[in-house]
Design a protein that fits this description.
two-stranded antiparallel ribbon, about 65% helix, elongated, about 325 residues, 2 strands, mainly alpha
Length: about 325
């Protein structure tokens, strides 16, 4: 091999080496630069803690991950796994916070910090989906999908059931009350949606569910009012009277009861026009005037009328003559 060919070969090998090194196949220089000077587990933990206290949450997450990967069985590994949950939470990465809390619970079920993991798991679901626009726009959370609220309620209730004396139980109980009120109000929104679309059986079931399962929430009064309206529109006046008596006794100031104690039946439905929709409610109308449906049925229902007619036929049959019977009614 000539000298020129050797030089070309060396140049090609050097080019390949530079290219591979640029792709990161021979090591991560960026990581080496980031953690330069850190050699012991304690140094990694102190760096992560300083970043956490300095609100450099992204940097703290990276350092905690590096600590665990380099010292998976070290004395700071467990503490890093619980502190990274808080770092994810403060970095507004709620899914990662839930996952990290779940992981800590699985790996360290007997840890003295496991109650904090349950709390942060519920808190992450409680905060999830907030978004930046919620800080500036008046968004009604009771009209949103209740999935996250239900998850948070379940996680916080698990914390209270397992660790009732935990220092986080007091805050968890307060949040559960708030979540329970929101879940009940969501059911009321759904029930009203069904009423406006004249699906009275579906609305009645939703309202009954609120009354039976969300006692001591503000939504119970609205649930009873919806039950009254559905009973009236279904012609079940006795049940409507019973529910109205319950509403008068327990919630005399409810908006659905007038000054004389009579129930105020709604007479219009929400039906936004195109102009109302495209102008975000600034122009146009949001309702129509026709009544939803009758609020009463005849005193005798259709099925009872059939029974009465059948009895009349039987009475007439008893008075038929012999000639009428043998001629099948042709001759009387």
């Amino acid at each position: 091999m000539s000298l020129l060919e050797k030089i070309k070969k060396v140049i090609v090998l050097m080019s390949i080496s530079v290219a591979l090194n640029g792709c990161g196949l021979f090591g991560d220089d960026e990581d080496d630069d980031e953690f330069a000077g850190l050699s012991t587990e304690a140094q990694f933990y102190e760096r992560a803690l300083d970043q956490l206290n300095g609100q450099n949450f992204r940097g703290a997450i990276s350092t905690y991950q590096a600590l665990e990967s380099r010292f998976p069985f070290g004395r700071f590994a467990e503490q890093a796994q619980i502190e990274i949950v808080f770092a994810y939470y403060r970095n507004n990465d709620m899914e990662a916070a839930r996952a990290a809390a779940d992981r800590f619970i699985r790996l360290h079920p007997d840890s003295e910090n496991v109650d904090y993991a349950y709390y942060m798991k519920g808190l992450s679901s409680f905060t999830s989906g907030g978004g930046i626009f919620n800080r500036f726009l008046p968004i009604d959370h009771t009209k949103r999908d209740p999935g996250r609220a239900q998850e948070s309620f379940n996680d916080l209730s698990q914390l209270i059931a397992l660790y009732p004396d935990s220092p986080y139980s007091g805050d968890a109980r307060s949040r559960m009350i708030y979540l329970r009120n929101n879940l009940a109000q969501y059911e009321i929104h759904v029930a009203n949606y069904y009423v406006e679309r004249r699906a009275y059986i579906a609305a009645l079931r939703r309202a009954q569910y609120v009354v039976e399962n969300f006692q001591e929430t503000p939504a119970v009064a609205d649930g009873v009012a919806i039950m009254i309206e559905c009973y009236l529109r279904l012609g079940l006046n006795d049940l409507a009277d019973t529910s109205l008596g319950l509403l008068r006794e327990n919630y005399p100031e409810h908006a659905s009861i007038d000054e004389d104690g009579l129930f105020i039946i709604r007479s219009e439905i929400t039906n936004p026009s195109l102009l109302y929709t495209v102008t975000f409610g600034l122009v146009g109308d949001n309702a129509v005037d026709p009544p939803l449906a009758p609020t009463q049925r005849p005193g005798t229902s259709g099925s009872q009328q059939i029974i009465d007619d059948q009895q009349d036929i039987e009475v007439e049959g008893e008075n038929r003559s012999f000639l009428d019977i043998i001629t099948l009614g042709i001759l009387n």
